[in-house]
Amino acid sequence: MRWYQIRPIVRIAVFIDGGYFDEVSRYYKFRHPRGSRLSFAGLHTLVRGLTAEFEGVDRMQCQVVECHYFRGRFPALEVEAAGKLKEQAVFDEVLLRAGVIPHYLPVSTTFDGRSKEQGIDVWLALEAYELAVQKGFDVLALVACDGDFTPLVRKMSSLGIRTLLLAWDFAYEYEPVPGQTRPRETHTAQNLIEASTYAVRMGPLIDEKLAAGDPLAEELFVQ
Question: Do the strands 108-109 and 115-116 form a parallel or antiparallel pair, or are they unpaired?
Fold first, then answer.
């Protein structure tokens, strides 16, 4: 009789700040030589690979057991008036096919008429904590940059859960109107980086992997 060693599974829960993810995805589509948006399936594969490296196990032992996406959403009538109702429906189908659970909050309007997401970070943190307590997982893969998520990461540590932070930092100029340029920057809060068990500077890492033809980086983008 041949005996096989049963290797423990490293359970990964992926939590995504949708506004941040969209900003990163747009950067790679319109500002990066790659010229393609990020793929959720590719993100899962990359997360498994990175977790395996940090945990010192085989990638097959690392499995994404949950993936949650949090984003503010405009009213359907406004989306329809902007001609983006079909685009919204297609994106929802992309999430469904990738096994990503969407969480939407209505976008609020400030006193000066600007649209603003409110409560997304709190909701994400609450859902992550509830999942950790009720179902349990080993690694929280967090796609976010805001320092407001630092208490969540520290709470995960208190529960014995490691946090894999996927952090992108980039800067570029864009034209809100023809002939007028404005700078746009995205930076990850230092306190969030320091609180995380594994913090990965994704920009340099992806460029390095793309240059080397690494399939993990290739799969990260929509083909």
Answer: antiparallel
DSSP codes joined into one string, 22-44: HHHHHHHHHTSTT---B-HHHHH
Amino acid at 76: A
DSSP H stretches of helix in the chain: 18-30, 40-55, 76-81, 85-97, 120-134, 150-158, 190-195, 202-211, 215-218
Long-range contacts of 156-160 (CB under 8 A, 24+ apart): 156/128, 156/132, 157/195, 157/197, 159/132, 159/133
CA atoms within 13 A on the CB side of 55: 26
Q: Would you say residue 113 has pLDDT above 80? A: no
Is there a contact between 194 and 178 (Cβ–Cβ < 8 Å)? Answer: no
On the question of pLDDT at 66 being above 90, the answer is yes
* H/E run at residue 213: none
Please provide the DSSP assignment of 58-91 as one string. Answer: -GGGEEEEEEEEEEEE--HHHHHHTT-HHHHHHH
